Amino acid sequence: MEETDREAVATAVQRVAGMLQRPDQLDKVEQYRRREARKKASVEARLKAAIQSQLDGVRTGLSQLHNALNDVKDIQQSLIDVNKDWRQSINTIENLKDVKDAVVQHSQLAAAVENLKNIFSVPEIVRETHDLIERGELLQAHRKLMDLECSRDDLMYEQYRMDSKNTHDMNLIHTYFGDMQKLSEELAKQLWMVVQRSLVTVRRDPTLLVSVVRIIEREEKIDRRMLDRKKQTGFIPPGRPKKWKEKMFNILERTVSTRIEGTQADTRESDKMWLVRHLEIIRKYVLDDLLVAKTLLDQCFPPHYDIFNRLLNMYHQALATRMQELAAEDLEANEIVSLLSWVLNTYTSAEMMGNSELSPEVDVNLLDALISRNVVDQLLSKYMSTLTSNIIGWLRKALETDKKDWIKETEPEADQDGYYQTTLPAIVFQMFEQNLQVAAQINEDLKTKVLILCLQQMNSFLTRYKDEAQLYKEDHLKNRQYPQCYVQYMIAVINNCQTFKESIISLKRKYLKSDMEDTLSISHANMDATLDIIAKEGCSSLLDEVFMDLEPHLNELMTKKWLMGSNAVGTICVTVEDYFNDFAKIKKPYKKTMTLEAHRRVVVEYIRAIMLKRISFKNAEERKEGAERMIKEAEQFRFLFKKLAAGSGEDTEGLCDIIEAIAEVIKLTDPSLLYLEVSTLVSKYPDIRDDHIAALLTVRGDASRDMKQTIIETLDQGPSQPNPNYVPIFKEITVPTLTVPKLLK
């Protein structure tokens, strides 16, 4: 207390010091005193009220504790009295056992009396119930069945209460009501028939289906009641619980599975499209059934049955089982595609589960996959393997068919522009197109894989195509009369190369994404190279055909007969032009190349004829006559190939200039200028060798051995400045028999 007093005094001193800090505040001392007095009085009043309240509460509590103590004493005394009375009445309770047994017997007799009417009328009720079931009045039949079961169950329960070990009486009751169990089974059979046909019944007679559901609900309630009684008493009637609701869903599940499996109407042996038909029937049936379930069936069942979602799960599981069974079969390539397309695309599309009329109850994003990713990968792997074998076989067969056309006696067909062609490119790329369209039905990844596969096989196929074209040429060379239309079909082979090129580009543009171009660039380049080789060899073989016919006329060149006025060059030009009338059926890229090659080979053969030294001019007059004839024939060649190359935009005059340049060397009258003329020739055509110069001087006929040696040695020492645009031509020409050293001896 002293400590508290000191703290109070110290606090008061601080408050007073705070109030009297300035001299003018001394005038308010009395005012401060009155204010503090009022505060003190107020605090004291509150303290007194609080203390009084606490005292009242304590007083009340003490009073209640006192009353409680008295009550406890009274209760204790009452318990003592009850215990005393209970001990005194034990013997009396034992004397009432007979009364208890009488009560139980009375209860059983009362139950028997209550059910007496039903007991005596059991056979009649059974007959009536049977008739009701046969007439399809299922609700009334079930009502009577329930009455019979209730009577039996009550009697058996009372017997169980009286003597649970008395199986004889229990069996007696059960036997008496034995026909009732048959009625239950018969009624159940009718119910399950309605449940099996529920999707049909709901459209024709929804009332019948509702009756079935009501019966099942009644049985469910009885099952629950009997199970509850079993927990309390241990007794449950025979045949309970029936679990008809569970059985109903089991039957619906079996019905759905049977419906899915029963849609296969054909086999592979009877119909190649059996799987497509099977899957389409499944799609139609499932969609129709689910729409009926949503719009009609759902209204016939209580909400807690969730019948639509239950049926949806049943159909999904049945479909998954069926798809897995189909996937396990030995499917062909087209069947694998049909199955995967249906599983991966059709199933979730608007044509089936994605149908707008099924939403929002059906969310395709929440549906599990019908077959696992592993099975899908196995099917795709099998498909690619089978497709590879099929494509190889198809390509081989297509080539064999095309080869048979090559030996026909009729010309090949021409396209709308008049170019010869065979059906091979169309057949090959139609096959590729069909397989790519089929693969696109599944996904983009498979489409890309199939495209890569097609182009890979195309690469191998073109190599075989090249080999077959070469064999075709070799067979023809053995007998040039056979095949009759060799030239026309070789032209068609050449044109096919261009068609193949265009088709490959079109196929890639249509089915390959731009970001995948690089992966096939090498393969594409290889195919283009192979096609160019085939076309080039084809053109070469056709030119070989031309020059075999020209050989007798080429042999006349630079001979005495030629000098005396042979028309060999005229015949050569007519023959070439005649062949090129057929070659007009070659497509432009290759026709242009072929025209240039023909021009080059004619000039080469002409120069080769000069270098063969079949003639040696005796005097200036012969040299002049021969040179002028060469210049005239060069002009004929120039005119011919200019005509053949019309529209190609190519300069065809340069090759004929070589003949004219050689003619100028031969025509030269002043031998002293011969070195200058030859050096000019060499500077224009730097691939001229010494033996070419020696042969040319031999044909001229007036060059001595010393002159030849001097000219050749001097030219060898001179600088060579070849024209970068010049395409060597003399390197192909060999000078037979005499070499330069022999010539100079």
TrEMBL record:
GO-annotated biological processes: exocyst localization; exocytosis; protein transport
InterPro entries the UniProt entry points to: EXOC3/Sec6, EXOC3/Sec6_C
Keyword Cytoplasm: yes
Keywords: Acetylation, Cell projection, Cytoplasm, Exocytosis, Golgi apparatus, Protein transport, Transport
Domain of life assignment: Eukaryota
GO-annotated molecular function: SNARE binding
Cellular localisation: Cell projection, Growth cone; Cytoplasm, Perinuclear region; Golgi apparatus; Midbody
Principal cellular location given in the protein's record: other
Cellular compartments per GO CC: exocyst; Golgi apparatus; growth cone; membrane; midbody; perinuclear region of cytoplasm
Pfam families: Sec6
Subunit structure, as described in the record: The exocyst complex is composed of EXOC1, EXOC2, EXOC3, EXOC4, EXOC5, EXOC6, EXOC7 and EXOC8. Interacts with EXOC3L1. Interacts with BIRC6/bruce. Interacts with MYRIP. Interacts with SLC6A9.
Biological function: Component of the exocyst complex involved in the docking of exocytic vesicles with fusion sites on the plasma membrane.
Family to which the UniProt record says this protein belongs: Belongs to the SEC6 family.
Protein name: Exocyst complex component 3
Organism: Taeniopygia guttata (Zebra finch)
